[in-house]
């Protein structure tokens, strides 16, 4: 269970959305570790091993790309709290990915971390193959991974940067979906 300390009274009404977004950024370990987390001035007291929210996703295997931190991590934890086993994709931060896996395992779910830059098609193929071998065929794919461009004007943007953004945001989602759809079709369902 999560309870709030000082400043909790103002986390209602219009501030609730801000609190949810803040929680997503501060989610590391929320599901399983007993500690106080300071999220934008609000103290969250996190109890050890909170009860699982539900089991509607029990037996389902989920892949969340970009799941070692931020919104991806929060999505992975929410899926695990609903009963799913979760594959954590990350690009660089292996330690953060391991912490997310540990939090999911503390909920009694299976989880593993898989390093792959989603814009690398060969790495995607190897990752999906490893996930299917380790956790089973994928039932749910969350294409969350993303990168930021350098924010330059069109005239100053290097074409290679634009290609990288498009590969990461659009082409990788298509390719990963293409890789997991055959397993979903065999089960006659998937998302």
Notes on the protein architecture:
41% of the residues lie in helices and 16% in strands. It contains five helices and seven strands, in the order βαβββαβαβαβα. Helix 4 packs parallel to helix 5 (159-187). It is globular. By secondary structure, the chain is an alpha/beta fold. Strands 6-5-4-7 form a four-stranded parallel beta sheet, sandwiched between helices. The two termini are 29 Å apart. Strand 2 (35-39) and strand 3 form a beta hairpin. The chain has helices spanning 15-25, 70-81, 94-106, 121-134, 159-187, and strands spanning 2-4, 35-39, 42-46, 61-64, 85-90, 111-115, 140-142.
Keywords, separated by commas or semicolons:
191 residues; alpha/beta; 4-stranded parallel β-sheet; 3-stranded antiparallel β-sheet; 41% helix; globular
What's the short story on this structure?
The chain has 191 residues and is of the alpha/beta class. The protein has helices spanning 15-25, 70-81, 94-106, 121-134, 159-187; strands at 2-4, 35-39, 42-46, 61-64, 85-90, 111-115, 140-142. Strand 2 (35-39) and strand 3 form a beta hairpin.
List the helices and strands and how they pair.
Layout: E1 2-4, H1 15-25, E2 35-39, E3 42-46, E4 61-64, H2 70-81, E5 85-90, H3 94-106, E6 111-115, H4 121-134, E7 140-142, H5 159-187
Parallel strand pairs: 4-5, 4-7, 5-6
Antiparallel strand pairs: 1-3, 2-3
Helix pairs in contact: 1-2, 4-5
Largest sheet: 4 strands, parallel
Number of helices: 5
| CA distance, first residue to last residue | 29 Å
What is the averaged pLDDT score?
Answer: 80
Q: Fraction of residues in helices?
A: 40-55%
> Strand percentage, roughly?
15-25%
Number of strands: 7
């Amino acid at each position: 269970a999560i309870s709030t300390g000082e400043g909790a009274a103002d986390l209602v009404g219009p501030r609730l959305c801000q609190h949810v977004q803040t929680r997503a950024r501060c989610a590391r370990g929320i599901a399983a570790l007993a500690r106080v987390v300071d999220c934008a001035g609000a103290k969250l007291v996190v109890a050890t091993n909170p009860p699982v929210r539900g089991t509607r996703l029990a037996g389902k295997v989920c892949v969340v790309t970009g799941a070692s931190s931020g919104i991806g991590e929060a999505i992975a934890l929410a899926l695990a709290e609903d009963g799913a086993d979760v594959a954590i994709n990350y690009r660089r931060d292996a330690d953060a990915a391991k912490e997310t896996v540990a939090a999911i395992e503390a909920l009694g779910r299976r989880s593993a971390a898989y390093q792959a830059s989603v814009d690398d098609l060969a790495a995607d193929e190897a990752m999906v193959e490893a996930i299917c071998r380790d956790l089973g065929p994928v039932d749910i794919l969350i294409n969350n991974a993303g990168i930021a461009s350098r924010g330059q004007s069109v005239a100053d943007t290097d074409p290679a940067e634009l290609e990288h953004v498009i590969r990461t945001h659009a082409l990788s989602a298509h390719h990963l979906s293409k890789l997991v759809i055959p397993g979903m079709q065999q089960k006659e369902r998937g998302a």
